[in-house]
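Narrative of activities, Objective 1.

The group set out to show that a structural description can be obtained from nothing but a protein's sequence at a throughput compatible with the screening campaign. Below is one input-output pair from the validation batch, recorded exactly as produced.
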Amino acid sequence: MPRRILIPLGCSVTISAFLLLLSCSDDVINNYYPPASAATARISGQLYPADSGLVVLEGDTTIEVNINWIGVFQAAGIPEGTYDIFVVPANHGRRIYRDVYISSERPFIQGYIIVSVLPWPFFYETPSGNSTISDFQTEIEIVSSEQLNLDDLKSLSYFEPEIAGEWIESGGSSNFVYQYLSTLDGSQIFTLPPTTTYTLHIDKSVRTVDGKTLDSDGALTFSTEDLELHLSGDLTNRGNVGILEPDLRIYFTTCVSEAAVREAVTFDPPIPGLWVATGCGEDLFDLPDPSYSFKYFMFESTLPAEKDYTLSVSKSIGLVAGSPVGGDSVFHITTESYGIIEIYPSDRGTIRGPRYAHVEFNAVMDTASVEASFSITDVDGEVLPGWPRWVNSNRGYLYYFDEPLISNSIYRIGLTTDAKTAEGMNLTREFESIFFTP
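Output recorded for this entry:
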């Protein structure tokens, strides 16, 4: 009859004639069986995800090795031989390794052993149990260590709530993918509604091709992300949105109906314009990007400077599958002040022999006031002589130097608040930029 030996994790037990000595080390050696002269082997591994449990080796001898709370097991002194090795986690499905020969030269060293929340013979799933997934994840995948009956899996499993789709084999009858499909505005795209918890139920009657059934009923639970909105705009002149042809875009974490966005997303005070979709595919082969974006096309090309707006998203309007937006529903926008949005040479930059300086404004400027307020000086504060030129409908100002700049020197470009826009608005802050010549 086979003997059963329990080897605690990481302990070596040496018992004197009076059982007075007890010690632990990295190796675990059974001192009673086999004899000291017998060949022995080592085993080790780590569960992923981490779980405690037991490793059972069944051969001429049955040996049990504990798995600690971080999923690690290791033991030495295992009698050489052929074993069926059962890795039995406390909270995951077991793994089985059949007819494994181990010896001093062929230890059972596994590194990471992947385990599943589903019962044997499953050992991998994506999404993992109790995880939160992107609404754009296009499929559910489960992997088995044994070939399974696909018809059983189709008839004896279901999602709660229902996900329309179908189980298919992927690379063999031990790897299965559930591809699901959802419809938005008449265009078919792969997506799931946000803020939803799903459970995949698999009946234990599902059989392997050899006729074995699962260890137990299985359940895999996962959730989709909340629906969130992210606002993007120009970031210049201390405002978070530019005033000159501003780029106003919103990004959701899933596909959102264009009609619903136009109804749900508003500006206060109003900005005349229209939200237009710029993301998501229109057919099965053009999958959506990780976020779904909209651009706001304004009916006028500019916004007033230094003005506060509120972008609001109504929570009463279901943007996707009846789900309102999650998280913040109000976003504050401040347009930038009048001023310079681009300069050459760049601030704190080093440039060899520039022939001119160029500043670009975010508004049409009053040329006389800018020329009177603009200066470029050397390290001693002396003004560099030159001549002006206006471009880009009086938004771009170039100042050409009469003489070449000195090497290994520092120059300062300045503009005072006496500079005005064509509508008579003074700049709200002075401008200064420094550059170097090598």
